[in-house]
C-alpha cells in the first residue's frame, strides 16, 4: 500500500464530516431565524401594534437569507448517506432540546397572559413550539431506513 492510497477513505470521511457540520450549522441558523421572526410577530400581536417593528423586518430579511443558504446547502447534499446523517443528527439535536424544555420553560406558566409575559419567556415558548414542529416534520419525512437509524441513535443516547 502506498502512502497516497491510504488517506482517501479518511479524506472522504473528513469531507463528509465537514459537510455534515456545515449543513447542521446552516439548519441551526435557519431555525434561529424562524424563531426570531415568530418571536417578533408575537410581540407585535400582543402589543396590539399595527406597525411592524424594525426588528421584525430585520429578522424577516435574515430568515430569507438563511432560507437561501439552506437551499444552496441542500442542493449540495447529493450523497444519500450524508443527507440521512443530516436529517437524523438534526432530529437528535431537536429531541435533546425538547428534553430540556422543562428546565427552559419551568419559570413560566403557559396559562399566563401572553401580553404580560417577559420577552425571554416568550422567546423560549416560541422556540419550543418551533422545535416541536420541526422535529415532527423531520420524523414524518424520514424513510423507514432513516427511522430505524434514528431509533437506534436515540437508544444509544439514552443508555
Explain what this protein looks like in three dimensions.
By secondary structure, this protein is mainly α. It has one domain. 79% of the residues lie in helices and 0% in strands. α1 runs antiparallel to α2, α1 crosses α3 and α1 packs across α5. The N terminus is likely disordered.
Order of helices and strands: HHHHHH
Task: Determine the structural class based on helices, strands and strand pairing.
Answer: mainly alpha
Strand portion: under 5%
Low-pLDDT regions:
1-11
Mean pLDDT: 84
Assign an overall shape.
Answer: flat
**Number of helices in the DSSP assignment:** 6
Classify the helix fraction into a percent range: over 70%
Task: Count the domains.
Answer: 1
Distance between the termini: 40 Å
* Total number of beta strands: 0
What's the main sheet like?
A: none
What is the CA-atom radius of gyration, in angstroms?
Answer: 19 Å
Short description:
By secondary structure, the protein is mostly helical.
Summarize the topology.
Elements: H1 7-47, H2 54-75, H3 80-99, H4 101-105, H5 119-141, H6 144-157
Helix pairs in contact: 1-2, 1-3, 1-5, 3-5, 3-6
Keywords summarizing the entry:
disordered N terminus
Amino acid at each position: 500500500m502506498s502512502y497516497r492510497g491510504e488517506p482517501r477513505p479518511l479524506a472522504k470521511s473528513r469531507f463528509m464530516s465537514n459537510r455534515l457540520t456545515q449543513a447542521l450549522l446552516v439548519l441551526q441558523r435557519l431555525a434561529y431565524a424562524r424563531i426570531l421572526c415568530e418571536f417578533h410577530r408575537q410581540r407585535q400581536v400582543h402589543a396590539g401594534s399595527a406597525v411592524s417593528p424594525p426588528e421584525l423586518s430585520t429578522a424577516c430579511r435574515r430568515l430569507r437569507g438563511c432560507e437561501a443558504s439552506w437551499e444552496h446547502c441542500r442542493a449540495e447534499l447529493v450523497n444519500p448517506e450524508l443527507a440521512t446523517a443530516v436529517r437524523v443528527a438534526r432530529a437528535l439535536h431537536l429531541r435533546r432540546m425538547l428534553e430540556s424544555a422543562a428546565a427552559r420553560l419551568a419559570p413560566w406558566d403557559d396559562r399566563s397572559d401572553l401580553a404580560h409575559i417577559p420577552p425571554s419567556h416568550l422567546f423560549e415558548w416560541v422556540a419550543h413550539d418551533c422545535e416541536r414542529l420541526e422535529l415532527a416534520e423531520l420524523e414524518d419525512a424520514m424513510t423507514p431506513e432513516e427511522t430505524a437509524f434514528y431509533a437506534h441513535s436515540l437508544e444509544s443516547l439514552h443508555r
